[in-house]
Structure formats: C-alpha cells, structure tokens
C-alpha cells in the first residue's frame, strides 16, 4: 500500500467516468475542475472501458480496496455495468449519481457488483429542487432512489450540498431519512474555493449545533474525522472539509479525471499527472508520483495565519 510523506495510506480512489451531465447544478465544481456541463454526446477524451479497468487493476496492486465512480453523471456511460463487472474483486464499488437513470438500471448495476449509491438530492420540494439543479427531473430522482433501495443498493446516501439556498431544507431531509428505511443523509459543506460564489456559504457549525440538539447519538468516524448523528432512527453524516485541517489529514483517496489524469487533492488542479497512453507501466509511474507528492490542502498547501487560511508561499516556492 502506498503512503504519502504525511503517512496517509491510499485506500480508495474516485474515478470520474465523464464530465458530461444532464443536470446543471448551481454549485457544481466537477470534481474540482470547474463546471463543464455538456455536450451530452460521448467525448473522445473520456477514458474507455479498458483504460478504466486497467487503472483499477493497477490500483488493486497497491492495496486500494474501494472505488467510487463519479462524473459528471457517470450513468451517461453505457458501459458502466461492464466497468463495474470488471472491477477487481478485492475492491468495493460505489457510485455517485443524480439518480435519473437508476430506474431500469439499478438491478443490473447491483448484479454487476455495485454495492451502494449516493444520490444527489438537495430538497424535497420540486420547485426548490429545480432552482438548485436547473432541471425538472425531481420525480425521476425520487423514482431512482426507490429503484436503488428495491435493488439492494443500500444504504442509499442522499447527498445534500448545504449552502444559502438549501440550508432551510435540512430539517425536512433529516425527517425524510428517519421515516424511510434504506436511506441515509450526507450533508456536504459548500466549497466556495472551487465552486465560486463565497456569498452562498453558510457557517457549517450552525448545522452541527442543530443536529447535536436533535441527536439521540453522535459518533465520530475515523475517516476525515466526520461526525455522524442518529436522529429518530435516521443517520445523518456531515462532510465539512472547508478550512478543516483534520479532514485533510485523514484523506486517503486519489482522484482520477475523466480524461485519465491523477489528482492528489480535490481542491487542486495545478498538479494533475497524466497517465499517458494508459499502459500499466505508465499508470504505475503516475500513481506512485501522485501519492509521493500529495500534500494536505489545509495545513500544508494552505496555512492559517491571523485566523485566515492563506496560500503557503514557502510550499509553493519549494
């Protein structure tokens, strides 16, 4: 297993299969690369089936035990089931999706070896959902969540980005997962440093404080030091990386862009490494170099001075 100089072993990878998406969410940052929605037709720049599988085979050689397929919208790939079926047996496979294509495909994905899904759902009100996603696909998403539960892709985590436009819907989303078996809620802190619009950000501790008041039990996960809240039988987890040095110190993932580049950190795109023609030797070399050069975004790349996070010029110069 590979580890960076900060002792962070790489146990998981996030693989973007496309930067295409049928949504146009206002907070999209496309795995830190910027919102590049559309066109919807397949693009030549995307890794093909064999290239994705070849990367996963190499990652497995280094002891990586989990892969999450992302996008864009990864279900725009017709070969998704094939990729999952060919994922090394030593790896657990999960998927982040907007859910609109799950009806009709959820069972096939489960049978191919997919273990669970995260579905983006920022509100229970169709009008509010349309405002955030710029689509009228609310009913399709709800149908997709139900299809995933029925197929056995549980727990289905509902991803809700918490910012100015959605914060008021947190209580009803918490109630929703408590009332529906097979669902969990993942509240994701809005990241203005890569999504823009800093005026949309809210103080995430306000959310933590409210959850604490409601919770029957609170547990902190080792991964990223995440807090989990059990409320009326429902599970709510908060992902709060902004300005969080502890979060970055516990990051054990490497990311892969849709066009075959490795990223050691979500927040950065200035150190992407190409895997070239995607031969196993090229993949190994790029993977080892990426891990060796990984630096925690908060705490090293960004440092706190006088109560503010600023770029660490000493690191940049070195």
How would you describe this structure to a colleague?
The longest helix is centred in the middle third of the chain and has 14 residues. The chain has 318 residues and is α/β, with parallel strands linked by helices. Helix 3 links the parallel strand 3 and strand 4. The strands form 2 sheets. A 12-stranded mixed β-sheet has the order 7-8-9-6-5-4-3-2-1-10-11-12. Strands 13-14 form a two-stranded antiparallel ribbon. It is built from 11 helices and 14 strands. The two termini are 27 Å apart.
Q: Specify the CATH homologous superfamily.
A: Aldolase class I
CATH architecture, by name, is Alpha-Beta Barrel
On the 0 to 100 scale, the average pLDDT is 93
Q: Using the coordinates shown, work out and report the CATH topology.
A: TIM Barrel
- In terms of structural class, how would the helical and strand content be classed? alpha/beta
Uncertain stretches of 5 or more adjacent residues: none
Shape: globular
Number of strands: 14
Largest sheet: 12 strands, mixed
What letter string, H or E per element, gives the SSE order?
EHEHEHEHHEHEHHEEEHEEEHEEH
CA gyration radius, whole angstroms: 19 Å
Q: Tell me the number of structural domains.
A: 1
